[in-house]
Design a protein that fits this description.
CATH architecture of the largest domain in chain A: Orthogonal Bundle
Helix content of chain A: over 70%
Distance between the termini of chain B: 58 Å
Order of helices and strands of chain A: HHHHHHHHHH
Oligomer: heterodimer
CATH topology of the largest domain in chain A: Rna Polymerase Sigma Factor, Chain: A
Low-confidence stretches of chain B: 81-107, 112-139
Number of strands of chain A: 0
Strand content of chain A: under 5%
Largest interface: A-B, 55 and 50 residues
Mean pLDDT of chain A: 82
Structural class of chain A: mainly alpha
Mean pLDDT of chain B: 75
Largest sheet of chain B: 6 strands, mixed
Number of strands of chain B: 11
Strand content of chain B: 15-25%
Number of domains of chain A: 2
Helix content of chain B: 25-40%
Number of helices of chain A: 10
Low-confidence stretches of chain A: 100-116, 196-209
Shape of chain A: flat
Order of helices and strands of chain B: HHHHHHEEEEEEEEEEE
Chain lengths: 209, 257
Amino acid sequence: MEWDDDTLRRFREGTPEVLAEVYRAHAEPLARLLKAAAWRGAFVRLRNAMELENTLLETFARAFEPRTRAAYNGTRPYAHFLMGIARNVLLEQSRERELVGRDEAFEGLTESSPEDGGLAELLEDREVEALLAAFKGGLSREEHRLFELRFGEGVAQEEAATALGLTRIQVRRREFGLKSRLLGFLQSKGYLEDLETQGWSFFKRRGAR
Amino acid sequence: MSGCDDRRAKQAMAALFEKGRDGLDADGFERLRAHLATCPECQETYTRLSRVESVLEQRALPQARSALLEQALFARLQPAPARPVVVAERKRWFSFPLLMPLSLGAAAAAVALLVVAPSLERREQGVPEWQARSSAPGEGAWGVRAFCIAPTGTVLAEARPGGTLACAEGNAVQFSYTAPERVRLSLEGLPQAGGEALRFFPSEGTAPEVAAGVDVPLPFSTPVQSGWLTGPVPVRARFSDAQGRTVADTQVTLTPR
């Protein structure tokens, strides 16, 4: 995003629209950086989605505090500014966990090289990709096309509806059906086997088709 | 791994996966996050579902989760009406940007004049440096004092540990602490009329470490406005060590003038 004088002024004033714009422009790149760091062996706890999201939330909450907003000059890349805050958040969290004797923050830091971490992530992604490919193999032609449009190409529902000759509501319903079946499929293949405990009736109801 | 029987959490995760942001509202997301914080099994499931979404969307942070996090972020940034330490209120009190540091400086200087000077005087009288600021000098080394400060920076009133500070609307409350060693400090007010606890320091998060010192002013004042000080508010100052154990506990009561 562009940091002109007006944007910087409104950012410093805490204008919600500008804060939202900053969040949307930087949340994904920051998540990507943190995840990459986690898979390289630093802050491995960030491989846990909840931990990653908590760190993102805390980082942006601090970044949007009035004093922190005032400290940003609009010249330095905001991503760097944000990463500095994220680093502080992570180190504080690590210190807190260490103090109470349950620190796992740097686990793997000495055991894994960056290549090892990258490979582990790649292997996990490959596993998911293989499952998705298998799932798509069982779809009808129309379902496959919808799946590709919505999830492969990231086309909006409206556009997907036009391309498939459906209404947006129909696309929405079919998409929901596909996701439900995917959930059941992942369950049947053991990817989500930990879910197979008492109470997971929503999976058992649907199952893999 | 032991099974988790929280069906609502599981349904929430499934709904988030199946319907994206339409599957979960902000409250539902907060409830799910609260459950995840205490349930490693569901954390694992949440992570696995996130990974599938990430691969599908080619994103590190799936869009639905990003949107819900955005809502959570703005809910957190939103000042609660009864909380005294909020950005908007401070901004209103120090309405002129340039005046803010000046006003803070003036407040801190006023506190320093009133507080540091007497502390030097006491030392000359032979009172040990770390035992000058309690309600009963010579008995306590830890303490928090409160000051009522006018917008001009003039100190209108003060209260020692165990005392009461009366402060009128339009002025600000400033705290200072005395600690003989580096320690974690938190100040929390508990309105006797009930309602949400008022966090004076820190405004968010866990108690931060503060340096050792005598009558060290906290970095900001709290404006008395928006009706948070309509009755007695006992403010508990808790000094704790790195392990979270309480080192000292003291109280000052704030009342409206």
